[in-house]
Design a protein that fits this description.
Metallo-beta-lactamase, Chain A, 6-stranded mixed beta sheet, 9 helices, binds zinc ion, RibonucZ/Hydroxyglut_hydro, MBL_superfamily_lactonases, zinc
Length: 258
């Protein structure tokens, strides 16, 4: 398996120096191409108002460059949209699920509680974060958060139809059905922790954060206690050196791995 680290969506929130990225993975497997998250896709680039709510457009300031879309980066490597057979999503926020419609042949894997949150949102926050248009015509396969343990994380799922080197590692908190995705590349594990944290310092020892991202994390979290305990476990995993841990939005982590 070959793993590529992609940025599928630069954003320039005014308070965050250097901006943030949408760190996605493109994995070449014997079962075809697999994507982990899709950032923003061609629909967001051509018509941002249809999928990105006004508050997010103001706060996140997405750059929306066609060259950053997952489809464009797949094609640049000599592949086509239909070569992407599976997409695993950490969650369904609009800066993670934007490119789904660019891959009509793909099965999209999410936790069942996440798809339930998107289709039956509770309250204003959930209503704004899951634009319906992004899921139109998309084939979902949902998974329950129950299974084996993996480096102290519980309920880890082997995803049927995919190599055993790709796992869903539920990390509830940011959203109701948020999950990490673990990928074994050669002799080491990578853990894409999605939005379980936003700033690399949160999982370093001792932890640190920057004010603007601390506020963003708080504003966007759904289950606070679970999010905090997951960050604690991610910090332990990182300190143990057993896996390369990274989140979706930190540009320094992406630069280190790309
Ligand atoms: Zn995000």
């Amino acid at each position: 398996m070959k793993v590529h680290h992609l940025n599928c969506g630069t954003m320039r929130p005014p308070m965050v120096a250097g901006g943030i990225v949408a760190h996605c993975l493109l994995i070449e497997t014997e079962q075809g191409l697999v994507l982990v998250d899709t950032g923003f896709g061609t629909h967001e680039v051509s018509d941002p108002k249809a999928t990105i709510d006004p508050l997010s457009r103001t706060l996140l300031k997405p750059v929306l460059d066609i060259n950053e879309t997952a489809i464009s980066q797949v094609e640049k490597r000599g592949y086509q949209a239909d070569d992407v057979r599976h997409i695993l999503l950490t969650h369904l926020d609009m800066d993670h699920a934007g490119g789904l419609r660019d891959f009509p042949k793909a099965t999209v894997h999410v936790l069942d509680s996440e798809l339930a949150a998107a289709t039956n949102p509770r309250g204003v926050k959930e209503k704004a974060r899951y634009p319906k248009a992004q899921r139109e015509g998309v084939t979902f396969r949902t998974h329950q958060a129950e299974g084996e343990t993996w480096f102290g994380f519980e309920a880890v799922k082997d995803v049927e139809g995919l190599p055993g080197d790709i796992l869903m590692v539920p990390l509830l908190g940011h959203t109701r059905g948020h999950t990490g995705i673990a990928v074994r590349s050669g002799d080491r594990w990578l853990l894409h922790a999605g939005d379980a944290y936003f700033y690399r310092g949160e999982v370093e020892t001792p932890p640190s954060n920057i004010m603007a991202l601390k506020l963003t994390v708080k504003q966007t979290e759904t289950l606070r206690a679970q999010r905090l305990s997951n960050v604690e476990r991610l910090r332990e995993l990182k300190a143990s050196g057993e896996a390369e841990v990274f989140c979706a939005h930190d540009p320094v982590e992406l630069a280190r791995l790309a």
